[in-house]
Amino acid sequence: MTPNAKMEGKVALVTGGGGAIGGASARLLASEGAKILVADERGEMAKKVAQEIREAGGNAESIAVDVADASQCKSATDAAVTAFGELHVLVNVAAAVTPDAPVDELPLEEWDRAFAVNLTGPFLMSKFAVPEIRKAGGGAIVNMASQLGTIGVPNRSAYCTTKAALIHFTTILAAEVADDNIRVNSVSPGVIETPRTRRRFDTAEEFHESRGKLHMLGRVGQPEEIANAVLFLSAEDSSFVTATNLLVDGGYIYLKRQPGENGKV
Ligand SMILES: NC(=O)c1ccc[n+]([C@@H]2O[C@H](COP(=O)([O-])OP(=O)(O)OC[C@H]3O[C@@H](n4cnc5c(N)ncnc54)[C@H](O)[C@@H]3O)[C@@H](O)[C@H]2O)c1
User: Fold this and answer.
1) At the N or C end, where does the chain have fewer CB atoms within 10 A?
2) Distance CA 213, CA 225 (A)
3) Residue 2 banded pLDDT, cuts 50, 70, 90
């Protein structure tokens, strides 16, 4: 744990915690003293991240959960309280991978699954976590949105629409729970170097060359740069921040670009 740890005595549940950004967020919160329940559909990946946290001297457990399933979301919040006694922070990172396709070709099942995981997931997790966070005297919820929740790109209607809705949901939940001392914010990353984004390109060079120039800063981001924002919004450093959408996108959405330049984001 770092000296003057920002999350000492706090318990955090991170969905999608077996993935790149969720894993980096779980590790950083743990290094700042939080006890972590790492939740992911890929239970083995969640277990691996929890193990890494323990090996680094932190406190973590894991659970396999599909955030589209209400009873599994309830089990996950119950598991956090059973393992660590209370719950202060929920970080909703899990998101489905949806195939690129124009609206007239996108299968309804893919559209539905994107909504079930990316939007209903944070709704269900919040539904069950809010009473626990309230009981603990307050805390924070951080929703992982996307720069594509603000500017959409062709062939990604389901993903972009779920992220736009998640940003809106965040503001509404923030208003509902403000009196309970619970702050609710979203983070909108730009293109971050993770398996999810790399899979669209054959080589690392092609990925960096093609995606880096979509950002004012001329490069893609790293999962740890998003984890820093998650920590900020989870900790007392952001005590006067609620209902906001924090862009951590290297200037992506305000960069002027030519029509068609967004292509495969
Ligand atoms: N990588 C980027 O460039 C980028 C940009 C903007 C926003 N984001 C958002 O950041 C988040 C993390 O992205 P990442 O790149 O780390 O992806 P990732 O694929 O590494 O992580 C996502 C994790 O979510 C898990 N997951 C998927 N469906 C689930 C379900 N139904 N229930 C529980 N867990 C489930 C996956 O197993 C995976 O571990 C996502 O919400 C994504 O939309 C990513």
Assistant:
1) N
2) 18
3) confident
Mutate to test the pocket of ligand 1, among 77, 186, 193, 194 (most ligand atoms within 8 A of CB): 194
Q: At 128, which CATH number?
A: 3.40.50.720
Asked if residue 34 lies in contact with residue 28, where contact means CB atoms within 8 angstroms, the answer is no
CB 151 within 8 A of CB 180: no
Domain membership of residue 172 (yes or no) is yes
The DSSP code for 101 is: -
In a domain, 257, yes or no: no
Is residue 261 in a domain? no
Give distance in angstroms: CA of 117 to centre of ligand 1: 10
Q: pLDDT value at position 232?
A: 98
Question: Residue 116 CA: which ligand 1 atom is closest?
Answer: 31
Question: pTM of this prediction?
Answer: 0.97
What is the residue range of 198's domain?
Answer: 11-248
Q: Is residue 163 part of a domain?
A: yes
Using CA atoms, how far apart are residues 8 and 58, in angstroms rounded to an integer?
11
